[in-house]
Structures are given as C-alpha cells and as structure tokens.
Design goal:
325 residues; alpha/beta; Rossmann fold; eight-stranded mixed β-sheet; 10 helices; 8 strands; globular
Amino acid sequence: MTAPQTPLGTPFTAFSTAADVLDGLDLTGREVVVTGGHGRLGREVTRTLRAAGATVTVAARDPERATAALDGITGVRVEPLDLTDPGSVDAFARRWLATGRSLHVLVNNAAVLFSPEPVRDARGHELQFSTSHLGHFQLTRALLPALRAAEGARVVTVTSGAARFGEIRWDDLDFATGYDPVTAYGQAKRANVLFTVELDRRYADQGVRAFAAHPGVVIGAGPFTPEQAASYRAQGLVDDDGVTVIDPEAGKKTIGQGAATLVFGAAGPLLDGLGGVYLKDSDVAVLDDEQRPLTADSIPSDANSAMLDPDDARRLWELSEQLVS
C-alpha cells in the first residue's frame, strides 16, 4: 500500500546536510548505484554514502571525466552509462546482473537541464524527458532482479519542486510544437514523481520501495557565465555581486543541504515500510493543493495531488513501456 503524503516529523530541517542525515548510520554491505554520481549533488551523495560504508557505483556517460571528478573519494566504481542510449542502458544492467550482486539502492540522479533549443535523442525523444525519465525508467526495470534480491531495496529518483507546476504533454511529449525549456523541465520532473508512485505500487510487495526526492534549488558557487548570472539574479539565486544566495527556508541550498534529502531517501531508517511519496527537507513533504505563485522570494515546492495522481502514474508507466520498447 502506498504511504500517505504526510510528514513524519523527522529531526531534520531545511538546514540539515547529507552528513547530518547519515550521522551514526553504518551502510557497510549495501550496494548503491548513483547515476551522474560525480557532479555536484551526485558527487556529494556518492561521497557521504561511501563515508557511511556503502559500496557505491557511479554510472556516467563519460567514465574518464567521472573518475577525475571523484578524485579523493576512495573505493568508488565507475561504469559507463548513457541514459539516452537504450543499448548503453541494457549493457549496464547486463553487467550488473552478471555479477550476481544485489542492489540495495538505486539513485536516479542524472539529468539534463534547460536546453535552450529542442534536442532529441537517437529515438527522437526530447532530451530532458529522455534523460530524466525514460532512461531511468528503462534502467530501473532492467535492474529489478537485483533490487528484488536485496533486503529493503529503494529507488530514489531526483525530482524538483517544478513537478508541482509541470504537466505531461500526453499528445506531444517530445515538443514537436511549442517547445519551451522550462515547460520541458517541468514535464520531466512531473514524470519523475509519477514514475515513483507507480513503481512503488507495482513492486512494494516484492520489497522494492520508491521515493521522489526534491533537493531544493542548488546552483553551487559558480563561476557562472554572464547569461547564467543574469538568470540567477532575476530568480533571486545570486546577489548583485554574483554571490550565491543561501536561504534554506526559501529552498535555496548548499550542495550538502541539497544532497540531504537524497540520502534520506536512500538510507533514512525512518522511511522503512513507506514508499510512493515525494520527499523534501529530509521528510515526507506536506500535501498542499493551494495555488501558490512562484516568485524570486518564494519557490513553492510542497507536494500536490496532481503530481501524485495514481491514474496519471499508471498511464505514464504504460506509455513509457511503449517508448522504450
């Protein structure tokens, strides 16, 4: 049974870091895969889970670049994976399953953000949707035997508060018309949550639980291009001097704070027995169906009923099966 979207009242806050969430936990013996686990949030997830004892495999499109980015974090495997290439996804899963290892946690973290012009993968699918959703959908299904073999397996899919506003363009997923990068991003992030809902419904009774995790708005410290700086300044994410604004209560976080909710989904014991929910600030997010404007000072990112709709979740799953076949 999918858990209700109700906060647990965890001891963590918007200010908590990934290290805070994992403090005192021993993850020795747990096998974890993190897609894009070498950059920004992904690297911090990799670093802190590894520090807690987990065995971490980073799946990356460019293994050489990933290996360099992970310098200083010992004992991390790096494997090639291009989420927009079905053959690459299948090859990664085959290699994993051939080892006979269980998979305790899959963190679907990799994403492509805000392509200014429509970019498509080899199958013709819009790149943000292809990377964030379709590739992870195919990967998760291919790794289900290893997930089912683990005790208490979890799939954590990194989403965004944009899921609250995003909509699935059922008749034009790939933006044959009307492409807008923000709209495409919102669709991909809504898909991440709907995928979580249906994955948990289908496989909870087989020991696989699913969580969608919103890290907050995390842009790091730069340096930024002039275009990025102007955009971030308009959104209230950097000040007039180009310095990143950190305001966790408003959802503007450091990398360590952003990674906290991801590792909470991956390993937080308070989530045992739960699944199919959207996480924020290292807790199950509040369900809020009020219409709330998006401003530079306020970034609404609580859950709403539309992003958790079970009928849409089932419909997206069935459509995704067709798209990756």
